[in-house]
Amino acid sequence: MNDRNEAINWAKSILDSPNDYYILDTETTGLSGPEIIELGIIDLDGNEIINQRFCPKTKVTEGATNIHGMTNISLQDEPLFDSVIDCLNELIFDRKLLVYNLPFDREALFFTFGDRGYDVPPIAGECVMQWYSQFCGEWNTYRSSYRWQKLPGGDHSAIGDCKATLQVIKGMAASPLAMGLMPMESPAA
Prior knowledge:
Blueprint: H1 3-16, E1 21-28, E2 36-42, E3 48-53, H2 62-68, H3 72-75, H4 85-94, E4 96-99, H5 102-115, E5 125-127, H6 128-136, E6 139-140, E7 145-146, H7 158-174
Parallel strand pairs: 1-4, 4-5
Antiparallel strand pairs: 1-2, 2-3, 6-7
Helix pairs in contact: 1-6, 1-7
């Protein structure tokens, strides 16, 4: 099976088990020490489980504001992240997470939980960006891996990016499998 077919089959298997997954996305104060200021979680039917902004303890960087539009002033009346920790722990324990760029959101969860003195629950998840990059098939010779793809349809809101991630999974699952291809060797070869 080639790599694109493997990604298509992965997406189909996700949609075949909708009760096993949630899609999660965060918006943060910045790239370094990323404190979560917006959290979105949906199920695979697109229903919103959590759609909440939070008042940060740290400063939202100018670069982050340029991406998602949130500032410390616009968030000053929002609840603290602590208000969702119990619910989030339960959700993370209950299902696997599908995240576009899982390493970044995992880091944001670790930072935000840890900054508040909470242990981060084990995060079982899949990086949808890695599967989508494999599906697209653009090789990055520098990294010897598939080139990361921007989230199609993402609007830099946590819930909007969750919904765009769901559409990426559905789009991959709806793609026809390529027939008669030999397994792919390294695309760089």
